[in-house]
Amino acid sequence: MTDIRSYEGTPEAEFGDYVALLKPRVMSLVVFTAFVGLWIAPQPVHPFLIFCAILFIALGGGASGALNMWYDADIDAVMRRTQSRPIPAGRVTGGEALGLGIALSGLSVMMLGLVANWFAAGFLAFTIFFYAVIYTIWLKRWTPQNIVIGGAAGAFPPMIGWACATGGIGIESLLMFALIFFWTPPHFWALALFMKEDYHKAGVPMLTVTHGRAATRRHIFAYTLVLAPFAIWLGLTSVGGPLYLAVAVVLNAMFIHGGWRIMRRNEEQAQADNYVAERRFFKLSLYYTFLHFLALLVQHGWGTW
User: Fold this and answer.
1) What is the mean pLDDT of residues 136-155?
2) What is the C-alpha separation between 175 and 240, in angstroms, rounded?
3) Is the Cβ–Cβ distance between 295 and 247 less than 8 Å?
4) How far apart are the first and last CA of the chain?
5) What separation in angstroms does the CA of 122 have from each of 58, 109, 112, 133, 176?
């Protein structure tokens, strides 16, 4: 496999290419969950400080994305869904991505410490390190548990938001972490079910590659069962309430049912209908986390009113 992390790109890079390095779609979930964690925390925070804190958390998330794209450029060049990213497409150099990631990491951590508190800033620094080093450099290419352990990086933002307001950790922020942490594996494994060849070509030891699709289907269903109690438990804490609980019960019933349908299917059935059930489950998973955190936000506003 050709290592293109130091690839010298063309001088035709545009501003949008550098934005793409920050993984804006992934960053949008980071920003939203961090905002919810900050907004529903028990200590009120001035709106301007909220804006600044979320801005620097977003920059930290973008820094993680740039570092990930720098190191994974060789994998991205092989996988069909990532070949058009700025580095494998030759529009941005690996050095530029690395420099941007390091610069934004330092800026985001220092500024979050100044506008919020140093506990939250340290938490952000650890999250960037976890995603860029623990997940991207180590776990992703080494173990089929890559997305399980590495999923913690995407689950930290609401805890960082909570820490910005409170200066610490609470049971509510831990349960928000658990909601995203246990959601991440079934979300990505569902994608891997109909994208297995990409991971196989790239040499990424996704569960579908190392243990097969039947085992992956069982794991997806198992994680939907583990996830549901944490999602509902969150509704019984100080940030929950009847509105959130109603949303959580409905969404988790749908998620478990989708996982059950996937587990009962064999590969011949899935290929025959072009993985329609797996694609539907993946689409549901895209809304799952967003709707839970939106319900927390609305529940908080309802309770305040």
Assistant:
1) 90
2) 11
3) yes
4) 58
5) 15, 7, 9, 16, 19
> Hey, how many other C-beta atoms are within 10 angstroms of the C-beta on 96?
20
**Tens-place pLDDT, residues 17-49:** 889 999 988 889 999 999 999 999 999 999 999
CB atoms within 10 A of CB 48: 9
Ranges of each domain in the chain: 1-168, 170-305
**Contact status, residue 282 vs residue 190, Cβ threshold 8 Å:** yes
Tokens 């934004």 appear where? Answer: 104
Q: Closest Cα to residue 153, out of 304, 33, 275?
A: 33
Q: What is the pLDDT of residue 145?
A: 86
Q: Please tell me the distance from the alpha carbon of residue 42 to that of residue 177, in angstroms, as a whole number.
A: 17
SS3 labels along 154-183: HHCHHHHHHHHHHCCCCHHHHHHHHHHHHH
Say if CB 20 and CB 27 are below 8 A apart: no
Arithmetic mean of pLDDT, 121-144: 94
Nearest to 143 by CA among 212, 196, 188, 207: 207
Domain 1-168, CATH class in plain words: mainly alpha
Q: Which two tokens stand for residue 127?
A: 């999250």
State pLDDT tens for residues 43-97: 999 999 999 999 999 999 999 999 999 999 999 898 887 888 999 988 999 999 9
pLDDT, tens only, 196-214: 677 777 788 889 888 988 9
